[in-house]
Amino acid sequence: MVPDPGGIGAMPKLYHAQLTGLLERHDVTLVGSYGEDPGQAEAAEALSASGVEAHLVDRRRSASPARRWRVRSELAATWARRPWPWRVVCGAAGLQPTIDRLSATRSFDVVAVEDNPLAVLRYPAGTPAVLTEHEAVRAPAGEFRASRLRERPMRALRAADWRRWGAFLPSAWAKFDLLQVYCNGDAEAVRGQAPDLSDRVRVNPYGMELPAACDPAAERPGTILFTGTFAHLPNRDAARWLALEIMPAIRARHPEARLRLVGSAPPREVLDLAGPGIEVIADAPGIAPHLEAAALVIAPVRSGGGMRMKVLEAMAAGKAVVTTPLGAEGLDVLDPAPPLAIAEGADEMAAASAALLGDREMRHDLGRRAREQAERRHTPRAWAARLEAVYEEARASSAAG
Fold first, then answer.
1. How many C-alpha atoms does 267 have within 13 Å on its Cβ side?
2. Collapsing DSSP states into helix, strand and coil, what is residue 201?
């Protein structure tokens, strides 16, 4: 994905913060791609016009049906031939020629590889390389639901694809001098899956371009917000748990509460959650107005790994956030007691949410402290300083043989 501070989902914002922080002190050559995700083509054009050295592969669907089918066939053939998950096949496609061209004419101090699909590519020989593993804990295959008969073949195919991750990840991680993760849970997952790589793991929570702090006077009383990219299984699970179990318990305590589910590509199982007191907003151009209107942000995450951009983004906007211990992962690395309401189980989540909805002063104080932590720990500059330390360690380790 292309760096984009206003992008949909976590990755464009994360990459923008990383690039912004590193460009303050370093020369950066960016290699990436973009496809059909909303705003990505425009972000690619803006990045190219900004003067950043960006080599971006356009992977949007061709207007030609014949070419589209040829591309699909080539990807499917790669999946059948290689032991790679489908996300890896698609994520790495088309980038190797650009990397080969740059490697033949340039030298680099370090190669920073973002996320495991790109681990299968070849990088400049002899150059220290750091892989950032975004999510070492995979969502369980059982989260693929197939309520309709015609969906069952695809469910079976996805489950088979999911099983490939177990062998793929350790082999991908072993190719790199250092392996960077965002939270302690992912560090433990890596050490459990690949004990021989334990000494290469570094925990480094990410940052973001901080949004403007929301005006507390602009919130709509009783409005609860959940955001996420619904192609991501943990977000679908969280949305269903929130709508079906947590919200009824909240409304029993706070009858005026209402929920907004905002995110990209919601499947039928999420769209069907809409009803009295629950609104589903698909493919919104941005979440800023929804954050502004929210009295409370809730992230009932109970599967998956990595940090949750939805949590950090809401904190940075000055919002009170209720989440699970899993949703707080990464934020507790730099501050052992992050300013969040952390709860487990539907009843605890509901009680914490209702208490904040009913106490304006407590809610706004929590949001203020959340914003302050984001300013201290999670700006692009703060994150870049931590990245520098990891990259320098990789260089020193490579130089020492």
1. 17
2. strand
Q: What are phi and psi of 339, to 5 degrees?
A: -75, 80
Q: Quick check: 342 and 328 in contact, CB under 8 A? A: yes
Structure tokens given for 375: 């300013």
175-192 per-residue burial string, b: 16 or more CB within 10 A, e: under 16: ebbbbbbbbebbbbbbbe
Q: Which two tokens stand for residue 373?
A: 């932590």
Please write the tens of the pLDDT for every residue from 152-193: 677 788 888 989 999 999 999 999 999 999 999 999 999 999
Give the strand pairing for 223-229 and 201-203: unpaired
Rg (alpha carbons) of the chain, rounded to whole number: 21
> Tell me, what amino acid is at 282?
A
Residue with tokens 């004419």: 105
Q: Which CATH architecture has domain 10-208+381-399?
A: 3-Layer(aba) Sandwich (3.40)
pTM higher than 0.70: yes
Phi, psi at residue 29, to the nearest 5°?
-110, 120
Q: CB within 8 A of 2, min separation 6: which ones?
A: 12, 15, 32, 34, 40, 43, 44, 47, 54, 56
Question: What CATH fold (topology level) applies to the domain 216-378?
Answer: Rossmann fold (3.40.50)
Three-state DSSP class for 202?
Answer: strand
φ/ψ (deg, to 5) at 95 = -95, -25
Q: What is the dihedral of CA 237, 242, 243, 248, to 10 degrees?
A: 150
Per-residue pLDDT of 334-388, as tens digits, reads: 988 999 999 999 999 999 999 999 999 999 999 999 999 999 999 999 999 999 9
Count of positions (residues) in the chain? 401
**pLDDT, the chain, mean:** 92
Cβ proximity of 247 and 283 under 8 Å? no
